[in-house]
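Sample log: Disease resistance R13L4/SHOC-2-like LRR domain-containing protein.
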Amino acid sequence: MWNKTSTCCNWSGVTCDNEGHVISLDLSGEHILGGFNNSSSLFSLAYLQKLNLDDNYFNSSIPSGFSKLEKLTYLNLSKAGFVGQIPTEISQLTRLVTLDLSFISYSTKPQIPNLQKLVQNLTKIRKLYLDEISITSHGHQWSNALLPLRDLQELSMYNCDLSGPLDSSLAKLENLSVIILDGNNFSSTVPKTFANFKNLTTLSLSDCGLNGTFPQKIFQIETLTILDISFNLYLHGSFPEFPLSESIHTLSISFTSFSGEIPHTFGPFPMPISQLHSLAIIDLSFNKFNDSLQVDSIFELRNLSALDLSHNNISINVNVDMFPTSCALSTLNFHGNLLHGPIPQSLSHCSSLEDSVTVSTKGQQVNLVKILTIFTAIDFSSNYFEGPIPEVLMDFKAIHVLNFSNNALSGEIPSTIGKLKQLESLDLSNNSLSVS
């Protein structure tokens, strides 16, 4: 609550200059209800440079009065609950460096009838976020509208009803470091010129109707940390033989038509994957990889938290020491591949594993639910695991369900199985196990 008995410069969210002029106002997350119009006293703050109205419930159109705040360099109306069209008067805020209109409405999509008119004077802008706003422009139209923004560094236009093609002219904005265009309908190829971005850290083109062949050189952009081209079913491609960028943190190409071999960049030569120190998430699921893959080096990644190789046809030789003591995985999915070998005791090293872990052998699903002391169920049924039941599994004291049926397990059933006091269902049928 603002205390009217004290100067406004001492109020929470208010910043003043040395002369007492309000230069910054942060009302984000205040859950303010109801709208305001052009007569609002807000528009009398002639010295205001930064305005943040994020996360409120104004439920009104955006007043054209924002154009009066001529000194604004930062304007954030994200998730503020505004409706209707975005007023072109915002184009008069020529000092803007950051404009965030993303997810502005809680009901219907606001509209930008003419993107060129909105941004034509915003030549100083560096960060532009327009997620979930209907723009309905073709590729060359919205790309050309952005070309005057030579200082633009971050562009996010998620689910903006944009249509194709994905125009190569966008590469002229050479300072771009973040490009997020998910959820549009480009129905086009990815321009080869995108590999020319020298500062690109994030390229997210998920669910965009992309097709053709993905340019391999994009994998080599030295600054790239996040690459997401998932859910483009007709996008073809393969990994290059040259090394991936060492800075890559997240790589997602699930639900595409990538095929071919897993390259040496994911193996011992020329660059061990263990040297990609920043890599934390690998998602190669639902593709057409069929190469034999030794995953040992992948698990050496000390920051790797999620690995999804599901629904491919990759042959993986499981060994006892498959998981290192430094294993930090929280998600592991091998469903729909070809696993061979024993159940690795070293799985217990992955103390961060939780929720559901899915693997399979020859298409037969294996579910591990709740690893370690919070294990409640293990289902290894109908696979081709061989060898003895690892004693380490007897340490999962909270387990309720244990199913190893229809495998090739052998040896004696551990007598320590009696320690599992919470066990309600046990199925070891159709194996070659014996009881002492």
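Observation: The first strand starts at residue 14 and ends at 16.
Observation: The chain has three helices and 28 strands.
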